[in-house]
Amino acid sequence: MASSPSLQLTTDQQCVADLLAQGVHALKIPSRSGLGLVVVNAALHDLRCMLGCPDASRAVLANLLIVNDLVDPPRVPPGPEPTLSHGQLSLMAAVATNSALKDIARASSMPRAQLDWELPRLFAATGSANRLQVVVRGHGWGLLGASSPNAAAQEACP
Q: Does the pLDDT of residue 96 top 60, yes or no?
């Protein structure tokens, strides 16, 4: 497990953070961790607050946990890295840093209506079922994070 010198996570918070950063859906964390749903939800709330983003989506929270070295980086997903367009890379970075769909559209410079078309295309291109998996896989491939082509777009918390 990675650790940040400025933030100390409880054992439950670390467990939840690790599973979230592996792309495990929040509703499946209790069965994977042995923690109760109330404990998992409290840990997710506490993690969001500790990172200064109380309204962050799971995808944004996972990104923050990874870029702040609070969890080990995700493993590279099986199979070849997808070839993504510049627009898809921009959309991936927007998903990693924005929770609301209107903000994702704005950050990726597209009309909100176009996002309804582009987001499923990004899911298909990355083999992801949701925004959380897009972020986790993006980090696994090195497409998100400090050394990624989109590093400057990932700095702020929404």
A: yes
β-partners of residue 117 are none
Tell me the mean pLDDT in the region 64-84: 89
CB neighbours (10 Å) of residue 64?
25
What is the rounded distance in angstroms from the CA atom of residue 158 to the CA atom of residue 95? 11
Q: How far is CA 83 from CA 25, 73, 98, in A?
A: 26, 21, 23
pLDDT reported for residue 141: 93
> Rounded CA gap, 107 and 58, in Å?
18
pLDDT tens string 17-64? 999 999 999 999 999 999 999 999 999 999 999 999 999 999 999 999
Read off the pLDDT of each residue in 65-83 and give the average, rounded to a whole number. 89
Q: Which stretch of DSSP H or E encloses residue 108?
A: none
Residue 148 CA to residue 44 CA, distance in Å, equals 26
CA-based nearest residue to 126, from 140, 108, 107, 110: 140
How far apart are the C-alpha atoms of 100 and 92, rounded to whole Å?
14
What's the CA gap between 4 and 67, in Å, rounded?
Answer: 10
